[in-house]
Prior knowledge:
single chain; alpha/beta; Transcription Regulator spoIIAA; three-stranded parallel β-sheet; two-stranded parallel ribbon; 3 helices; globular
Amino acid sequence: MSEGHQIVCSERMTIEKVESFYTELESALLEHTEIELIAEGVQQCDTASLQLITHFIDAAKQQGHRVTWVKPSESVLNVAELLGLLEPLELTQHITQ
């Protein structure tokens, strides 16, 4: 199992892309211990995608793996805040006051 791996989130992280995103996340979790979610290019996201990532982060923690965000876009931060998912998604450090 290798250490670092980057997943570049698509421009649209929405329900119609959740299945393929799930497959990518699952594969990364099986093969890597440290995973970075590159989310600076996300222009649209929804509840389904953020719920998926929340469960992914939980599963990674249970297996002793680490997931970090790299430059989450305003779209990701805004939707996560509206849904009350900033803490479960470990995004609080990316919010500017």
